[in-house]
Design a protein that fits this description.
Elements: E1 2-6, E2 27-28, E3 31-32, H1 33-43, E4 48-53, H2 57-65, E5 69-74, E6 83-90, E7 93-101, H3 108-114, H4 116-119, E8 124-128, E9 131-133, H5 137-147, E10 151-156, E11 164-167, E12 173-177, E13 187-188, E14 192-194, H6 213-220, E15 224-229, E16 233-235, H7 239-250
Length: 259
């Protein structure tokens, strides 16, 4: 099963960390967050990747060029004028990575539609190149297969942006958790499983946002299910997010690192 990672958006630049490279290339420890994410998928046996590139796509290609492996240029396609393929080890696993430049201005739905032929007509994984989790990908796929929907999304409880106070009856603080897990509703954590039928919902528009009209139509037709995940999930949108992920990794307590 192939894994598609959306890595092309302008996104939010993380001030004081990096503002001249795509966010998926920002390092956690010594390697980009993208490398950590791919290594996590590879540990579950998902070793074929398609990266949808856009903003500063050449920097991602250059990164793979410097890794231990083979990088070659593939024949272009009408909607993909620049395609490379990397074959090499990621986290000790033999992986094949297709680097597809899906355009500078394309939105997520447009990027996904452009790599349809690279994916083929099989079930595939889909996520974002700037977030990590310890979701059990095997159980996620099993959930998808059991529910027989077009699309499965991993529903997470995001960490709060504010510190959580625990107090006694006289308002003495008896506990403080800097980044507690939110106890309210779930949000999309990415980590999708998709049937090829999702391509029927992708119009040929550069401004098509996958998370808007396509998913809304799929939901309206009751073709989407959620896999609940209550453990670790963390996107990297801010300096504090980056700092937290690096602290976890350097302390040896990174939930996404599997022995």
């Amino acid at each position: 099963m192939k894994t598609v990672l959306l890595c092309g958006g302008f996104g939010t630049r993380i001030r004081d960390v990096a503002d001249d490279i795509p966010k998926p290339l920002i390092k956690v420890g010594e390697m980009p967050i993208l490398w950590h994410l791919m290594g996590y998928y590879a540990n579950f046996g998902f070793t074929e990747f398609i990266l949808c590139l856009g903003y500063k796509s050449e920097t991602v290609v250059d990164f793979f060029r410097k890794q231990n492996g083979e990088l070659s240029q593939l024949p272009s396609k009408p909607e993909l004028p620049n395609i490379h393929e990397f074959k090499g080890l990621i986290n000790g696993h033999d992986c094949v990575v297709t680097l597809a430049d899906t355009g500078l201005e394309a939105m997520t739905g447009a990027r996904l539609r452009k790599v349809h032929k690279l994916i083929g007509d099989s079930t595939f994984m889909l996520s974002y190149g700037d977030g990590l989790s310890d979701v059990d990908l095997g159980k996620l796929v099993k959930h998808h297969q059991q529910h027989k929907k077009f699309l499965t999304v991993t529903g997470v409880r995001p960490p709060s942006r504010f510190g959580e106070l625990q107090v006694d009856d006289t308002n003495n603080v008896i506990g403080f958790n800097e980044k507690p897990q939110a106890s309210g509703g779930r949000i999309s954590g990415g980590f999708f499983v998709c049937e090829p039928k999702v391509f029927d919902y992708l119009e040929p528009r550069e401004d098509l946002v996958f998370e808007k009209e396509p998913i809304q139509k799929i939901v309206h037709e009751s073709r989407m299910t959620m896999y609940p995940h209550d453990e670790f999930w963390q996107c990297m949108d801010t300096y504090r997010d980056w700092e937290l992920l690096n602290q976890m990794f350097k302390s040896g307590k990174a939930p996404w690192v599997r022995s």
